[in-house]
Design brief:
CATH architecture: 2-Layer Sandwich
Strand order of the largest sheet: 2-1-3-4
Helix content: 25-40%
Largest sheet: 4 strands, mixed
Radius of gyration: 16 Å
CATH topology: Macrophage Migration Inhibitory Factor
Distance between the termini: 23 Å
Structural class: alpha/beta
Order of helices and strands: EHEEHHEH
Strand content: 15-25%
Number of strands: 4
């Protein structure tokens, strides 16, 4: 983990390379040193049908749910969320400043007793590194 589930208004795709943003999000969370590469997932979900505030056609949003595994202290969780939030705010700074965009990042902690996983990525990445 983390898994970043990113919902965004479809109009952002008109002016931004959202696939590149997904890669940048992945890179920034790995660069924190908090999260292992093999656990990172970024899923982009453009939303075609939405209503934002006064329904101005330029209104946009990006909302991230960042799921992480249990066991990290508050300061570590905050640092992980802050780097994601900062990246988004920097990427969309002009639109935010113009008053047409909302950005949110929420962190959810997986309950280890209710989380089932099987991941072959870690072993493959380790083999390839050697």
């Amino acid at each position: 983990m983390p898994h970043l589930i990113v919902e965004h208004s479809a109009n952002l795709s008109d002016q931004h390379d959202m696939a590149a943003l997904a890669r940048r999000l992945s890179n920034v969370v790995v660069a924190t040193g908090i999260f292992p590469l093999a656990g990172v997932r970024v899923r982009m979900h453009p939303i075609d049908t939405y209503s934002v505030a006064d329904e101005h056609p330029d209104n946009a949003f990006i909302a991230v749910i960042m799921r992480i595994g249990a066991g990290r202290v508050l300061e570590t969780r905050q640092m992980g969320g802050q780097v994601v939030f900062d990246l988004l705010c920097n990427t969309f700074a002009d639109t935010i400043e113009q008053g047409y965009m909302a950005v949110s990042v929420d962190i959810e902690i997986n309950d280890p007793d209710m989380s089932y996983k099987r991941n072959g990525l870690a072993a493959r990445l380790k083999r390839e590194a050697n």
